[in-house]
């Protein structure tokens, strides 16, 4: 699986958009980009995933650059409950294992 | 409600005393997996199963066993637990097939081996 690089921590004001970047410059053509988050030792929660097109669901938007070497997770209106560690993972189409690195600790502040 | 259920949520036990952590999913998922999470090491896969009676090793299988006799259950067995298996454990499941379905995780089991 391709290695990912994320900032260690970020702050965001409540109600504002949170933009979490991820670099995955060695991504292969068949690898998807997944985003999960983990709130204080609870089970990782799936947020969104994509291959090359931008994706949106009820939780977030995922923007993938045209060369697929980086992506951004956008939480449009962050709330205090969005405070968590966010993990960006790349995994191939047929892959089953997810390798979680250090992630980004997002702190949403009032 | 679709969910992955692990039991127990917390367990403190002693070295060498066999234990089993159960995992059950109600989503009819073919794929199930066990991970452990340790500070500074992220989430590492222990074992996974792609269907009934099909299991395979992940990154860190030593000291663990699994079985998949039914589709919904995937227990993790520590035959002779040791202190280095003190960790936070997560079970996950996903649907196999097209579009690379995401994994869904349980709430975790915190094991302390004294």
Explain what the structure shows.
The complex is a heterodimer of chains A (110) and B (114). Chain A is mainly β and 110 residues long. Chain A contains no helices and 9 strands. In chain A, the strands form 2 sheets. In chain A, strands 1-9-8-3-4 form a 5-stranded mixed beta sheet, with no helix packed on it. Chain A has a 4-stranded antiparallel beta sheet with strand order 2-7-6-5, with no helix packed on it. The relative contact order of chain A is 0.35. The mean pLDDT of chain A is 90. In chain B, a hairpin with a 3-residue loop joins strand 4 and strand 5. The mean pLDDT of chain B is 93. Chains A and B meet through strand 4 of A and strand 4, strand 5, strand 9 and strand 10 of B.
Reported for the largest beta sheet of chain A, the result is:
5 strands, mixed
Average the pLDDT over all residues of chain A and give the rounded result: 90
Q: Stretches of chain A where pLDDT falls below 50 for ≥5 residues?
A: none
Globular, elongated, flat, extended or rod-shaped: what is the shape of chain A? Answer: globular
Largest inter-chain contact set: A-B, 20 and 26 residues
Helical element count of chain A? 0
Order of helices and strands of chain A: EEEEEEEEE
Number of β-strand runs of chain B? 11
For the residues shown, what is the average pLDDT of chain B?
A: 93
Question: Hey, roughly how much beta strand do the residues of chain A contain?
Answer: over 45%
Which spans of chain B of ≥5 residues are poorly predicted at pLDDT below 50? none
Write a concise synopsis of the structure shown:
The complex is a heterodimer of chains A (110) and B (114). With 110 residues, chain A is mainly beta.
What characteristics describe this protein?
heterodimer, A: 110 residues, mainly beta, five-stranded mixed beta sheet, four-stranded antiparallel beta sheet, 0% helix, B: 114 residues, seven-stranded mixed beta sheet, 11 strands, 50% strand, globular
